[in-house]
Amino acid sequence: MQCLLREQPRSLALANRDYALVFHSVPQNKNSLSVCIAEFVSLSEKPLDGFRRISSRPIYGTLGLIELENSNFLCVITGASEVARIRDGERIFRITEVCFYSVNRPNWDHIRQEGDFLDNTADGYDSDIPGYDATKYASEPFSSLRKLLTNGTFYFSLDFDITSRLQLRTYHAYTDPQSDTMHEQFMWNEFMLRQLFKFRSHLNSDEKEVLDSCGFYTYVIRGFSGTEPFKLGMQNVRLSLISRLSSLRAGTRFLARGVDDDGNVANYVETETILDTPNYSVSFIQVRGSIPIFWEQEGVQMFGQKIDITRSFEATRAAFEKHFSDIIKEYGPVHIVNLLGTGSGERSLSDRLRQHIQYSPEKEQIHLTEFDYHSLIRSFEDANKIRPMLYGNVESFSFYSEKRDGEAITSQDGIFRTNCLDCLDRTNVIQNLISRMILENVMLHTRQNAGYDFWQLHSTLWANNGDALSHIYTGTGALKSSFTRKGKLSLTGALNDLSKSVGRMYINNFQDKGRQETIDLLLGRLIDQHPVILYDPIHEYVNHELKKRENEFSEQKNASIFVASYNLNGCNPTSELESWLFPDDNPMADIYVVGFQEIVQLTPQQVINADPAKRREWETCVKRLLNNRTKDGSKYVQLRSGQLVGTAMIVFVKESCLPSIKNVEGTVKKTGLGGVSGNKGAVAIRFDFEDTGICFITSHLAAGYTNYDERNHDYQTIANGLRFKRGRSIFNHDYVVWFGDFNYRISLTYEDTIYCIEQGKLENLFENDQLNNQMLTGDVFPFFSELPITFPPTYKFDIGTDTYDTSDKHRVPAWTDRILYRGELKPIAYNSAPLYFSDHRPVLASYEASIVKVDKAKKKRLFEELYLQRKVDVRDASNTSYTLIDISGSVTGKPNLIPYVPANGMDKIKKPSVDSRKWWFEDGLPARSIAAPPGIDYQLNPDRPVNPFTPSKEPDWVKPEKILNSEKKQEQHPAMSSQVTNPLQSLNSSHPSLIPQQSLSKPTKPSKPDHLAAPRMKPALPPRTNPSSSNSTSLRSSPSNIPPTPPPRKSTSTPQPDLLASSPEDSKLTWKPLV
Q1: Spans of biased composition, class Low complexity (predicted)?
Q2: Which of 17, 174, 454, 555 is the most exposed place for a label (fewest CB within 10 A)?
Q3: Domain ends where: 385, 418, 452?
């Protein structure tokens, strides 16, 4: 990859052998937004004529665009070293050199930014240029950013998405990082790449794929990465560590503490331990982060740690709960390992932490272990004292593992969150221990034995990790690193820790402010800082036109969908399902989706290891019924099925539909026991029907009459945690149908509910339905719909009867079984069926879906046609740059692009004037337009329309004789003023659209007559008709669209009537209707 420059008109380009990403400069004012025009083109179009190389080094990619001192800079990586190889074809590089090139100004072209001397001819640099001063480099606008980015703490990968953990990406994902799946929390150049992502979104799918494969943009994390190869038995394995520091509350030690209002904490790091072997890969995640309350700490403290908690318990709850809610959604249940001591400052933080956990709505998902590190650990062996406190969740959280082909074996279902005060030294020692406990479990499961050398490598990686994270947060290496490396304390290690402590004090008090400002600049957090706007004049227009002309390359057809759900209560398979699957004689659906809950009894044995035998029996029964029912000879085939303990789903489609279905995927999500157990959860299956994405989810949510909060939490866990390949969520589909046993109840007594059922007052029950009320508040299932419920509650019956629960518990009947949908599905039916095998009644729904089929060849031809046409419209093939007239205009507004002439002394021509930017002369006066009469004896015509754009036969200029003749004619018809009572009546009759219509019910002001109360506009008063008046000429010469000032009112004790409150006869004025 190369970086190239064209000076006139100024443009920068990133180019590989086949394609180029070009950034054109846009002339702009001081107060205007920073704008560049982006263009992604094939080199076959020869877009790089006039460009030259600006760097002799290879370019690894761009970090993005940033504005510094009114210049738009493109930042590119010019130096990197490989530091880790996670798996075959997955390399990680550390940034060692970056360069900043201005897109719109040549001021810094002479600055040599690279480490060694360059060829002046190739790169365009000349040290003999007048005014060149190498020492000036330190004062350039990008110097602090360049120093930060090259300090050895930033990493990137050209082979995979380094921002996401292994569990979120498949083994084959991919040689190209995908901007759709990156984790913005850990991407430090998100601000600089934001507009590039927006630019990418305007490209078509083929262009996106090509752009991704070019590797022009690069995701960067900050933290640590390292790999240690090792021979484990007869196998060559790799042990790797990746630490990703969050960018959401990034900063230095004493300037970033605690939590912010969005729930982001300081020094929040996700650390992933990865073991790669020839047969499988293992990954385990831990996080660290500051105590999630609002607290501060001064830099220089001679005696103890003075900690100031700045907000009350009540004012902190929202941020605390947001923090842990986000962690639980992302990882599952949380085990907090609090290493704070018993000193007054640290104890106050621990006390507040316990208080918040006690009152947290997520407290069932949070486990707290408190371990006073300083008082309990004197040697490496003492660290093992914490093992018994952690072992239970080490087993239950497990680890993620997958085969070489990407098939998942196990998944991690929980997270350890470790903290001390700074989340550095003590935290690193305990995280090292937890990582070791996990790897010991892996060795136990795989029946391998790791010797001393393996654990020594493991400790070395963790010690290096601690040093790197400490350098970022405090400016020095980690304390106790010798303890981590060698497993013992020594005099040399103690002296090193003392030296680091002194260094930290100096750096934190005298250098952190500048470091913090540079971090904020990189992340786009400074006041009034805006990203460089990338405008794509070609693709935005083409995409807009394609959307308007969609019918030219696509066609639609209808497909019928039948969805059925049944909580089986563990009953055996049966073929007596006709009343459920075939409720009427309508034609059979194209797609049948059948969901079951409690397909097996939820015993501990089944929860641990569910037996798929019963699901297979049900699959056979349903398939046989479908094929026996068909009358046109069509057959149903089983597309896919899935099971999570007792929750299962089976999808059948007509054989004739199979050629139109592709990309079939399935996944599951546990929600039972805080996400550890599969007794509750969801199964999802998705596929593409032609070019329409369809997703089905069946779920079994938490039980309990009053546990709707827990059911809401289960919904959030499923909605946010269910992921298909390439990071696709359930909401990335055109149609979504979510059904199952939701377990939401009716908030009435048993007696009241039975009475309403017997009286047929289902609307009263629905008003008290928990799901209905939770959806109304927006807590669950936003944008989902449900057909009106016309059937009685489906739970809970005495098995084999139509009688609701008569046991001692008297469970309140409820609509626990529901079917919801999202998208423009056309609902056909929604009902329950009379099956008596369970204590539930099954439910069913049918829909009609509009399936879109895109003719990709036609779309491509139309795209190319529009693309070429637009390219001719917006740019000249030779020397042209662009001036953006209205950047705020959207695609629908069709922003105007005009060529800007840059050379031959013509580049000083002012840009066109628009409403948001007027023309101004050098003296600061606005531009004026002068309209001169066609002759000396001409005056403005008072009879011309007020609106100059109104069609009229009246000329703009007339001679005075014509005006006098017009007035004489008016005097010869005095009846005009006597016959028209309301002076606006003639106007109302001739131009009714110009007069506001008065509402009949609106009261009028009592001080005015009714006939004058309605109109809001005042009539234009012509000059008085006295030809002999000395000032008549001047009055007639004034434009008629500027009403003359009425005569001043006499100052008398008797108030004079308002002109609008009197008739024309009283005022003795000549009234003339507006035209």
Answers
A1: 1026-1040
A2: 17
A3: 452
**Cα-flanking dihedrals φ and ψ of residue 925, to 5°?**
-85, 145
Does residue 319 share a domain with residue 395? yes
DSSP result, 307-345 = EEE-S-HHHHHHHHHHHHHHHHHHHSSEEEEE---SSHH
In 61-162, beta strands by DSSP E: 61-68, 71-87, 90-102, 154-156
Domain end (from 452, 476, 509): 452
CB 424 within 8 A of CB 267: yes
DSSP reduced 3-state for 992: helix
Give the bridge partners for 24, in sequence order: 11, 37
- Please give the Cα distance from 64 to 831 (Å, whole number): 55
In a domain, 975, yes or no: no
- Residue 711's Cβ-count burial label (10 Å; 0-12, 13-18, 19+) is buried
Tell whether 327 and 436 lie within a shared domain: yes
Q: What pLDDT score does 912 carry?
A: 57
- Which of 344, 428, 336, 438 shows the shortest CA–CA distance to 383? 428
At residue 494, the pLDDT reads 60
- C-alpha of 1024 from chain center: 67
* Tokens found for residue 802: 């139509």
The tokens of 615 are what?
A: 């699901």
Strands 677-689 and 692-700: antiparallel
One domain, residues 188 and 253: no
Hey, what amino acid is at 836? Answer: Y
pLDDT of amino acid 447: 86
Q: What is the pLDDT of residue 30?
A: 56
Domain count, the chain: 4
Residues 6 or more apart whose CB falls under 8 angstroms from that of 1070 comprise 970, 977, 1022, 1024, 1025
Residues of the chain with pLDDT under 50: 116-138, 171-177, 302-303, 876-909, 916, 921-924, 974-1075
Positive or negative, the Cα torsion across 411, 414, 420, 423? positive
Q: 244 — phi, psi (to 5°)?
A: -115, 110
Same domain, 869 and 796: no
For residue 393, the one-letter residue type is N
The C-alpha atoms of residue 733 and residue 850 are separated, in whole angstroms, by: 13
The helix (run of H) or strand (run of E) holding residue 23 is strand 19-25
Handedness of CA 497, 498, 501, 502 (dihedral sign): negative
Assess contact for 301 and 315: CB atoms under 8 A: no
Pick from 130, 128, 127, 131: nearest CA to 114: 127
* DSSP symbol at 926: B
Distance CA 484, CA 461 (A): 10
Distance CA(4)–CA(954), nearest Å, equals: 61
Asked if 87 and 68 sit in the same domain, the reply is: yes
Q: Extract the tokens encoding 66.
A: 């940033």
Cα torsion 459, 464, 465, 467: sign = positive
**Which residue range forms the structural domain that includes residue 863?**
537-553+856-878
Contact call for residues 220 and 262 (beta carbons, < 8 A): no
* 442 and 586 share one domain: no
DSSP 3-state assignment of 166?
A: helix
Question: Any idea what DSSP says for residue 947?
Answer: S
User: Distance between CA 1017 and CA 656 in Å, rounded?
Assistant: 69
Tokens 């090259």 identify what position? 150
- Looking at the structure, do residues 420 and 548 belong to the same domain, yes or no? no
CA atoms within a 13 Å half-sphere pointing along the CA-CB vector of 471: 16
Strands 415-419 vs 408-410: parallel, antiparallel or unpaired: unpaired
d(CA 669, CA 220): 30
Per-residue confidence (pLDDT) for residue 49, from 0 to 100: 87
pTM greater than 0.70: no
Three-state helix/strand/coil letters over 742-810: CCCCECCCHHHHHHHHHHCCHHHHHHCEHHHHHHHCCCCCCCCECCCCCCCCCECECCCCCCECCCCCC
Taking the chain, what is the end-to-end CA distance rounded to the nearest angstrom?
A: 68
| H or E element in which residue 492 lies | helix 491-510
